[in-house]
Amino acid sequence: MQKCDGEIFFVGLGLMEKHITAEAAEALRAADKIYVEGYTSFYYPDVYTSLKNLGIPEEKIKNVSRRDLEDNSGEELLRHASMGNKVALATVGDPFIATTHLALRLRFERYGCRVRYMPSVNIFSYSISKTGLFSYKFGESATVVYPRDGILSTYPYLVLEENLKRGLHTFFFLDIDEKFGPLNAAEAVKLLLRMESEERRGAFTVGTDVIIVERASWPDERIILTSAGKAKEKRLNPPHSLIVPGKLHFMEKESIEVFRT
């Protein structure tokens, strides 16, 4: 691959159209090609409508898959930028919440591409602010994923256990599978209870309080505080994120109790 003479913009779209900043809109309009990364989240109303509302022609936009970015290391983006073009990778939320995008940025910089970053609202910071939990009281986060080939990863459970030992809150991203779609929070709770039955460490039981963040920032957003036992039976509408509170400050407790169901 020849040295890169172009620019690559990592553009955060936020969680809905109104979150697109003036800086992001300017970069998207200036780009010769826009690659929309669509496997890590959902958007309101939808990404393509929002880009059209910015006056961006449809022929400039291309969807990229998990394989394009992770397995092929963004090869098409790099090839396009190496020809002196301006290329945008548009991401729901903030680009660098996902580790995949950091790996891409480092690779593009090694080839000499000029890289620019346009931040935006992301599900992690939004959920913390919306619930009123203190950001400095969150420990390591993890992703609850669908079982693969019948094997359930218990890594999220082990992260939770370690955070609880330290009195910290745990934020769970929920899997989005190209075949099965977004993991529902009720199903994620069931998976965590399965992990408990395998690990038997008492970190997550039917009595454990969970906070479900449903359709964050959308018009029909819901924040739900309930027990795991009740959460696994709820009828919910993804996309979701999940928080398991640790030791609560009295102000945090007052803040989240308004969401109790």
Supply database-style keywords.
alpha/beta, Cobalt-precorrin-4 Transmethylase, domain 1, Methyltransferase, Cobalt-precorrin-4 Transmethylase, Domain 2, 12 strands, 21% strand
Q: What is the CATH C level class of the largest domain, in words? A: Alpha Beta
Order of H and E elements:
EHEHEHHEHEHEHEEEHEEHEH
* Beta-strand content: 15-25%
**Structural class assignment:** alpha/beta
Just name the CATH architecture of the largest domain: 2-Layer Sandwich
Kindly state the number of beta strands. 12
Approximate helicity band: 25-40%
- The value of Rg in angstroms is 20 Å
**Number of domains as seen in the coordinates:** 2
CATH H-tier superfamily of the largest domain:
Tetrapyrrole methylase, C-terminal domain
**How do the strands line up in the largest sheet?**
3-2-4-1-5
Fold and architecture overview:
- With 261 residues, the protein is of the alpha/beta class.
- The chain has helices at 22-30, 47-53, 66-71, 75-82, 99-110, 123-131, 155-165, 185-199, 228-231, 250-257; strands at residues 7-12, 33-37, 61-64, 86-91, 114-118, 142-144, 170-174, 176-177, 181-182, 209-214, 222-227, 240-244.
- It folds into two domains: 7-121, Tetrapyrrole methylase, N-terminal domain (Cobalt-precorrin-4 Transmethylase, domain 1, 3-Layer(aba) Sandwich), CATH 3.40.1010.10; 124-257, Tetrapyrrole methylase, C-terminal domain (Methyltransferase, Cobalt-precorrin-4 Transmethylase, Domain 2, 2-Layer Sandwich).
- Helix content is 34%, strand content 21%.
- Helix 2 links the parallel strand 2 and strand 3.
- It is elongated.
